[in-house]
Design brief:
α6 links the parallel β4 and β5. It is built from twelve helices and ten strands. It is of the alpha/beta class. It is globular and about 55 Å long. Bound molecules: S-adenosylmethionine (SAM). The site of S-adenosylmethionine has 23 residues, from loops.
Amino acid sequence: MGNRQRGLTFGSVAEDYERYRPGYPGEVAAQVLAYASEPTRTAVEIGAGTGKATRGFASLGIAVTAVEPDAGMLTVLRRESAELDITPVQATLETFATSGQFDLLYSAAAWHWTDPATRWARTVALVRPGGTVAFFGSPTRVDDPDLAEAVAAAQRAVVPDDDVHPDGEREPRGELRWPGTELEASGMFTDVTQRRIPGKDTVSRDDFLHELSTVSAYLVLTPEARVDVLRRIAAVLPARVPLDRTVTLHLARTKESR
Ligand SMILES: C[S@@+](CC[C@H](N)C(=O)[O-])C[C@H]1O[C@@H](n2cnc3c(N)ncnc32)[C@H](O)[C@@H]1O
């Protein structure tokens, strides 16, 4: 299965996704808005999923256009966001059509599914000059080196190592990480900034297994292989699993003149 297709597999687990994937700390939206050079009134979110990041921005009074290709994810987003100024649109970044421009474009744990050949030109077309772009995510990471290695070993028995982390996560860890590296290289943005928002969590073994089963590397497995890998991982886990929920945030501005 190609990367682009793999990005479209989440709908089958939309309810589990909403229940077991963590949300984002309020600090993320606060830092994005503080970074913006002018007031942020409108935003477009790419790959909004069930609305975990959408609600954080909309509850601060921003009108959010939530672009999401998957009907199952959008159903949950609509249900969970009814009171907020959110406009859900069923589309990908590549097919989303609008005549307007937004103060802010952001994407949470979804940018790696967009088309690398067109994503930056699409971004610039969607954001007003001097507007803000923000990309953030927090891959599921076990916060204990020995336990993390035991989980990785159990994973490797079934899931190819390369499949566990999305694109950007595989890049070498220089000072500036993906997609900051691409923001810089595109030459289309200024003030490229990378931040870390530290966070820790502890979840039950069952909740951790449910969270893992919403990760695309698992969604593309056959049901038998998924059961097999989750059973192997369960066997090495303690009752409570410590997690590192640090969020990596990349920020930049579109140029004032184009
Ligand atoms: C891991 S989920 C992240 C959802 C949400 N942003 C969050 O943080 O919980 C990735 C989402 O990106 C969507 N997606 C996949 N390909 C996309 C594309 N080309 N354009 C926009 N969204 C896409 C998927 O349907 C999925 O809902």
